[in-house]
TrEMBL record, chains A, B:
Organism taxonomic ancestry: Eukaryota, Metazoa, Chordata, Craniata, Vertebrata
Keyword presence, RNA-binding: no
Pathway: One-carbon metabolism; tetrahydrofolate interconversion
Protein name: Methylenetetrahydrofolate reductase (NADPH)
Any one GO molecular function term: methylenetetrahydrofolate reductase (NADPH) activity
Domain of life: Eukaryota
Organism: Platysteira castanea
Family (UniProt): Belongs to the methylenetetrahydrofolate reductase family.
Residues covered by the MTHFR SAM-binding regulatory domain: 346-646
CC cofactor: FAD
GO BP of this protein: methionine biosynthetic process; tetrahydrofolate interconversion
The protein's role, per its UniProt record: Catalyzes the conversion of 5,10-methylenetetrahydrofolate to 5-methyltetrahydrofolate, a cosubstrate for homocysteine remethylation to methionine. Represents a key regulatory connection between the folate and methionine cycles.
Length: 646, 646
């Protein structure tokens, strides 16, 4: 009787296959005793598997193409764009390869480093383009090894443009993308997912459309996993191409490349490069409005939306690939109108995950870096293991030094002049520092009329969650409790809660109230007296720049301050207050006073000396209220402290 | 300013020192990434450290001495006594060494195996006595190695009685306890805590009281950690002895041995063996009532209480060691009257922990063995690691076979005749089985007037916690949902709750509702239909004896069903529903039908065939309601199932 409805143990495991991957899957098996419960298949699947799963679920997706920036400043901006556009939920992004721009180098603007940043720091599934013509086998292998080392898992294998007109085939060289595909498969087995380019109108250099289809089939049969097409202007172009591909036996996913027209000049340039012809009906619309950027963009959006709708409605298309030209507005608008931009993406964990394969088991971080996740990732990049929340043993890996505060993806997005306006051209005392903190919390303009939108410890405006604590935070900052991190207590909110929720639906999330601040030794002395009354209920760590450390943490164990309970899972506890890593964080938190703030001012200037004084004399304090079901007592602790001082 | 109140990181760690232990502490360090947070110092300290900590805290304690039983049945009873008297919170128990009884053998009545059981199965800190005279060095080393292998950590080093009158010192042999102490320290370094015997009146064979004190000092200086004294009848005897010890430089703890007089004959025998003289004032009381056991015991209790009070009041005594003679009543009474019997011992975890050193990091078990913890310990005794709740990977250690259902400490405490009275001399159908289950739940007598106080899956009466579910359980058992395990949902009760609390105080405990039962395939078919409505909310595993397994557990991950949140700690999740170990449990749960129930009846008898039918055809089902903050829906699931069937 039961056999009809029966699904056996092995069959009920939905993500059991790792596609025979050789290296990535091994490590997670070794670690499985201590590893995270599989909370989010997205973190464990290869790109090809994600595509398949989305397709099986009838879940439409999109992806975004970017090119590497020219300057370090542009790189900082591009990374912010990754974060913002990443929030919309692309299945992947890809980064083009510019042979002229030293694409495999360690320069902050290289294709390799931009892709690395997208994967590791922005947590985005990323495809790195790579071209092969005019390159030696060793060069290419070197690039691929480096990509693998950096955690990149996907390569778009391209021929690239021959240098100059007199290009000739090299014997034993890489003459076509198919050579690169074969090389990747022979040298790296199944490690990389490989994407190749398709030309809906045929490659401009191909003998014929049919010959080009045959070349595409060769690339697929050499080991490519899916195809992204060159841009096209009419949906029927793509649909015909897709049918033709299928007719000759190409069965892998084929993703249409969408180019929303964003301006007259960019269109002309692209057409020139791609040797495509713009259809007359489009020219007819564009030519009369060619000097009206806004009108052209509106038209481009309309056109893209209607083309995408037609593609999706055909039932043959499951994902759309967007040529963004590194711009945000048009693509975002198209995606929103199509309804595939995720307005409220579910967070798998309460912090931004990294997409490096070795981090897919990472399920816990110290709370200290909550506003500086990129710094945390940077400082733990050499770790082999991502421990389950216990750093207390002697063999735990060390935190890397944050030597270069100007590391480009940690650099403030605001230039010096702007920072001075926010944080004060001239400080007159510790009180003017209190004021900066207070303005950051309240969102009110400072005395010179500027809003404080970032702080050295937080490059972004206040988190939504922190807003829940705004009134209390304002009060204490005014009086010299300079808060840099906090969270409210949460006693079992649904995991789908728009503000504090995370993890799979059907669960409940919890938090212990947390407060972290700099403050004077005078206040610390009073605070310690007050804390005696709260023994057991409140755990504290109090440290100064020299490392003098006062704590009541039992046995130096981490204190879990964020956890979630989910259907059919073990408990997840992704955020802890960890006594050992707090000492690493302390170095960073104190150094930010000097590196980001004091150094805005002339040496020996009074402003600089004020910040230096705070750096040398203040304490960094963190407090946890363990009684999460009761009203947060930390405000009372602070209130009692002020009372004692008066 | 802060330096005054400052206690640094290292100084705030309360249990940092492991006393230089060589082997025990190593393994926990290696495991510390995955190991349990230190919830309970008791599990991690050596006996000598526990003594010191109790003394420092001004916390009075007691310990209990037992001798090995003569028969297997007596062993079963003694182990029940360990469990009962263990509940009162002794600091340790000790098991005497009977050279005539093959004390180091694997016999279920040997000193070695009784001590092993106390440590591993009853979770008691245990001292194994060992005598050395008339034994070879190799024999003794062998015993010690075996003790270490079994997880014993403490040895009481004794000379033992010479065999016969014509005993002579052996050159290079073990002539005195001090030789054994030296041998243990030289062969096992600091692995064992060593206890030696002290004689408040001097050893009967010593030249003098003073000479005996010198011998004692030799034993201590050879490496003994503490002293337990021979019994004595007057408190001043002990207090003088203790002062004399201190005067000659013995500084280790000296624990008075207390002998509550329990009967005329046992007193006489003990006096004969120990060559002690009973004081006249005691003889004067006892002789007239020598045939009145109750009167003598009452007097013995009075005497012991007043002596113990005097000892404790002296301020020199922190712990009391009781010679129980394997009896419960008198000692328990004395302890209760002294107020050092723990009426409500705190549970470090919701299940009974084992005291084997390799299990001190054990912090999670499958819920299935909740009523059979000794079976779980037995079946995992070969494990090297006690995993953090994840058995799902291929390299997880296998569960040992439970080949011998008559393994003495898993044997039912009730004899066959009694079981037949409880479970039915003659079964007339499945309904008579339903009735047995129902009577077990309700506590009402069965149709023949007998209460059902145990079941094959549960050797004890219903747990207090299960009582919370009594009404519902009764209803479903009547209708053929034969429950063998269950727990209510708990949404954050204090960890000090007398019924469901566990772990350190100041925390909160949680549970998901759980229900496990055998039931017919007819009911399973309906149940599966009903469960579709509860998808996500309810996780289930349904399996028959052949291993046909139906589940909706995601990715075969364990589901945490009991967890606790504590001040300054990581989350503890000591109980899980684990899909992999469920299949091992299934074998045991089905086999118990046959081994414990069916085999009570003649082969081919109708009663036996009924049980055999159930074994062959019923399913074992477990259900978890993931929505722990809401009202338990499992009763509704069952209700819906019955409704569907009607």
């Amino acid at each position: 009787m039961v056999n009809e409805t029966q699904h056996t143990c092995s069959a009920s495991s939905s993500s059991r296959s790792d596609g025979g991957s050789s290296s990535g899957s091994e490590s997670s098996k070794d670690n499985s005793r201590c590893s995270t419960p599989v909370l989010d298949a997205d973190r464990h699947e290869r790109l090809r598997e994600k595509m398949r799963r989305r397709q099986d679920a009838g879940d439409k997706w999109f992806s975004l193409e970017f090119f590497p920036p020219r300057t370090a400043n542009a790189a900082v901006n591009l990374i912010s764009r990754f974060d913002r556009m990443g929030a919309g939920g692309p299945l992947f992004i890809d980064v083009t390869w510019h042979p002229a721009g030293d694409p495999g180098s360690d320069k902050e603007t290289s294709s390799m480093i931009i892709a690395n940043t997208a994967v590791n720091y922005c947590g985005l599934e990323t495809i790195l383009h790579m071209t092969c013509c005019n390159q030696t086998k060793d060069d290419i292998t070197g690039h691929l090894q480096k990509a693998k080392r950096l955690g990149l898992k996907n390569i778009m294998a391209l021929r690239g443009d021959p240098a100059g007109e007199e290009w000739e085939e090299e014997v034993d060289g890489f003459n076509y993308a198919v050579d690169l595909v074969k090389h990747i498969r022979s040298e790296f087995d199944d490690y990389f997912d490989i994407c190749v380019a398709g030309y809906p109108k045929g490659h401009p250099e191909a003998e014929s459309y049919e010959a080009d289809l045959r070349h595409l089939k060769e690339k697929v049969f050499a080991g490519a996993d899916f195809i992204i097409t060159q841009l096209f202007f009419r949906p029927e172009t793509f649909l015909k191409f897709m049918k033709d591909c299928q007719a000759i036996g190409i069965t892998c996913p084929i993703i249409p490349g969408i180019f929303p027209i964003q301006g007259y000049h960019s269109l002309r340039q692209l057409v020139k490069l791609s040797k495509l012809e713009v259809p007359q009906e489009i020219k007819d619309v564009i030519e009369p409005i060619k000097d009206n950027d806004a009108a052209i963009r509106n038209y481009g959006v309309e056109l893209a939306v209607s083309m995408c709708r037609e593609l999706l409605d055909s039932g043959m298309v499951h994902g759309l690939h967007f040529y963004t030209l590194n711009r945000e507005v048009a693509t975002t608008e198209v995606l929103k109108r199509l309804g595939i931009w995720k307005e409220d993406p579910r967070r798998p964990l309460p912090w931004a995950v990294s997409a490096h394969p070795k981090r897919r088991v990472e399920d816990v971080r110290p709370i200290f870096w909550a506003s500086r996740p990129k710094s945390y990732i940077y400082r733990t990049q050499e770790w082999d293991d991502f421990p389950n929340g216990r750093w207390g043993n002697s063999s735990s890996p060390a935190f890397g030094e944050l030597k270069d505060y100007y590391l480009f993806y940690l650099k403030s997005k605001s230039p010096r002049e702007e920072l001075l306006k926010m944080w004060g051209e001239e400080l007159t005392g510790e009180e003017s520092v209190f004021e900066v903190f207070t303005c950051y919390i309240t969102g009110e303009p400072n005395r010179n009329g500027y809003k404080v939108t970032c702080m050295p410890w937080n490059d972004d405006p206040l988190a939504t969650e922190t807003n829940l604590l705004k009134d209390q935070l304002e009060k204490v900052n005014r009086r010299g409790i300079l808060t840099i991190n906090s969270q409210p207590n949460i006693n079992g909110k649904p995991s789908t809660d728009p503000i504090v929720g995370w993890g799979p639906s059907g669960g409940y999330v919890f938090q212990k109230a947390y407060l972290e601040f700099f403050t004077s030794s005078e206040i610390v002395t009073a605070l310690l007296k007050v804390l005696k009354k709260y023994e057991l209920r409140v755990n504290y760590h109090i440290v100064n720049v020299k490392g003098q450390n006062i704590t009541n943490a039992p046995d130096l164990q981490p204190n879990a301050v964020t956890w979630g309970i989910f259907p059919g899972r073990e408990i997840i506890q992704p955020t802890v207050v960890d006594p050992v890593s707090f000492l690493s964080w302390k170095d960073e938190a104190f150094a930010l006073w000097i590196e980001q703030w004091a150094k805005l001012y002339e040496e020996e200037s009074p402003s600089r000396m004020i910040i230096q004084y705070i750096h040398d004399n203040y304490y960094l304090v963190n407090l946890v209220d363990n009684d999460f079901p009761l009203e947060n007592c930390l405000w009372q602790v602070v209130e009692d402290t002020f009372e004692l001082l008066n």
